[in-house]
Specification:
- The protein has one domain: Dna Topoisomerase Vi A Subunit, Chain: A, domain 2 (3-Layer(aba) Sandwich), CATH 3.40.1360.
- 37% of the residues lie in helices and 17% in strands.
- Helix 5 links the parallel strand 5 and strand 6.
- It is globular.
- The protein starts with a helix and ends with a strand.
- The relative contact order is 0.14.
């Protein structure tokens, strides 16, 4: 960069501004400049359907496809015995609270196709068992060991369309 001195300072100021304005949505866990986030405030979204993802990057990857019309819930990670991540370390209780309030007909578990992701999905299915909701998960066919934020929109679209109930 030829004019590094003149370009660097405005870039640093812009990054500082972003860091100050970003916050976590109190409803879903998304990151935005407002709380509730833009997705949670959108009246066109279907309140009866919630897609549960591990991380914010997964939410953004799914939402870019524009195929899921509902709301989201970010867990903030996945269960992992090796990494010491327990259910109380994730926003699972908040998800159960949202379901317990009523008004949700379907939960879509959009966990990564990893051992930890599938363990998390199984745990959530057990916790949600007693609620009158339809529980589904993304269809298999996502690459094993793959992560949602690296997949193309066609793969994500097929996975959402072919989601199936959890027994």
């Amino acid at each position: 960069m030829k004019r590094r001195e003149t370009a660097l300072q405005p870039l640093l100021v812009a990054l500082q501004d972003v860091a100050e304005k970003l916050s976590t949505c109190s409803l879903c866990g998304n990151v935005d400049t407002c709380d509730p986030c833009t997705i949670c405030r959108d009246p066109r979204r279907d309140d009866k359907s919630v897609c549960v993802v591990e991380e914010v990057a997964d939410l953004w990857a799914l939402d870019r496809s524009r195929l899921f019309p509902g709301r989201y819930h970010v867990l903030g990670g996945r269960l992992s015995a090796l990494e010491g991540v327990r259910p109380e370390d994730l926003s699972i209780d908040q998800l159960i609270g949202r379901v317990a309030k009523g008004g949700i007909d379907e939960i879509v578990l959009a966990m990564n196709a990893t051992l930890e992701g599938q363990t998390t999905a199984h745990y959530l299915a057990e916790r949600l068992e007693g609620y009158p909701i339809r529980l589904s998960q993304l269809a298999h066919g996502l690459p094993v060991g793959g992560e949602l934020d690296y997949l193309d929109e066609g793969t994500l679209a097929q996975a959402l369309r072919a989601r199936r109930p959890i027994a």
